[in-house]
Amino acid sequence: TACAALRRSAGHCESFRGPVDDIFLLYLADRAPLLRSLHVTCRYDMGRTRMENEIFITMVVKKLPLLEQLVLSDGLIEPASLAAIADHCPRLRLLNAGGCHTCGRINNTLRVRLESRIKDVRLPGLAGRCGGIRLMRPRTRRLRW
Which InterPro entries does this entry report, sorted A to Z (predicted)? Predict the structure, then answer.
């Protein structure tokens, strides 16, 4: 398993690619201080609430200062998490969250900050459903005569 592999690496794991959940991500951050590349291959929601976002920042992002590549295949990531990643991962060269979505708009200040610090940035799109409210585009139907 991934946990066993992390234990055997004795703190020398530099790259991880695979599915994660909250518990494994915390375990990874604790056991892999040399992590340079993280590719999350499953849906993962980062910071669904303000409290979860603060916990994520404190317990995960701050422990990965050597991270150079972060790829998030699917899930939710909020602007505050993106800002924390930019602030606490100074070596980050690739942030690919293009397959993710966000409930909050990424303002120009944050966009410029991310793009000035990170060489290759792909930002998430705005979600269709946030906080139980579904954002819908008007549908048009073709009428058949």
Answer: LRR_dom_sf
